[in-house]
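Students often ask why we bother encoding 3D structure as a string. The short answer is that it lets us treat folding as translation between two languages. Here is a chain of 412 residues written in the first language.
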Amino acid sequence: MKVKESESKNRIKPIMATVGAFISYSIGAGFASGNEILQFFGSWGFPRSIVAIIGGAAATTLYCALVYYLGQKFPFEKTSDSYLFIGGKGLGWFLQIYGFVFIFGCFMLMFSGAGSLMNQQFGTPNWFGSVLLGVVTAVITLGGLKSVENVLGGAGIVILIYVIIFGIISIFHPASSFENAGMAESAIEQGQILQANLFAQPPFRWIPGLDQLNSPLMEGILYATMCLTSGFPFYYTLGNRSKDSKEAVVSGVLSGVGVYICVTFILIMMLTNFNALINPATNQMYAFPALAALDNMWPAGSWTYSVIIFVGVFTTATGYMWVINDWFFAGQEKTKKSQLFIVGMLVFGVLLGGILPFSTIINFLFPITGFIGIIMTIVLLVKVIKHKQEEKAVKTKVVKQSHKTKAMKTES
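And here it is in the second language, the structure alphabet:
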């Protein structure tokens, strides 16, 4: 009994580290800012946003369990090879190339988000936040994968706790009200906020009437699968750290639950303070609506959430940087070539990322990427089913061979 309890305790720490790393990687500039959450979930208002959350949580839990399971069973030194493993040479190459392009784009977007964040909260020029992000990311990424995993794991838990606390406070705060959630629909009609819609993007929009099929369930699933596309190599690596398939699946389920606890409470905070999300100077949504919501409840302390968002942006940028570097320098993290590449990428991010249109890119690119993520989820499911069937066939063959051997011994 004591052995089982000790074994259970030994599992908790690596599982929570994996869950924390997943949350940290997922919570980037778009997530912690509230921008993604508002477009994919909050724009539907209450209670339809609940449907979007259920769809997103279910999809995330499914693919995390699948990815971690395969990552535990089939580790790769070069994480980008995992694309070829699940999709073969044809589809695998496409997923690999698209994944790289999207991850690179998101990496650039982190610098745009950091610049906008520091500008909205502290009034600093956009380049300041971008440069600060580049410096901090360089320090951690140059330390290697273990350094990245440790930082992401701890930061994810801190972000989760902070978001839960202020999500709960917003339910009871006198400046907040669920009645404000009804303002979302009119804000979309007036063009003050954007709503994610896969069918409004090419090539889907070229089919008449298809954009009318958009729904909260569809966008919730697309948001989840978009995160799979951007995080697949890193998630696959997280599966490597599980001791066995059971631990991998449990880590996957808790990863899905953990990140959607964050989604739920950030959403509550924004919907109950929706009247504060529109910038009166521009009549458009603030770049960081979650920060505006907190500022409505706690003006003197909203800077603390700016720090939390920056941590979220930094942890995601760090994860992206590690994935991109691993693409070219797998197993060579400490070499001079690898480190020069990291520094060069960060300089490039600072110079280019700060001029990208933050909200517009999220609205255009993320739904399409979610569609690619749905394809990846199906491929993952097929891969796991085939592996389980092969495992079962091997066990059956071993058992039959064992019975045959015993029969031969008995006859002799």
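Translate back mentally: Residues 11-411 form a domain with the Amino acid/polyamine transporter I fold (CATH 1.20.1740.10). Keep this in mind for the problem set.
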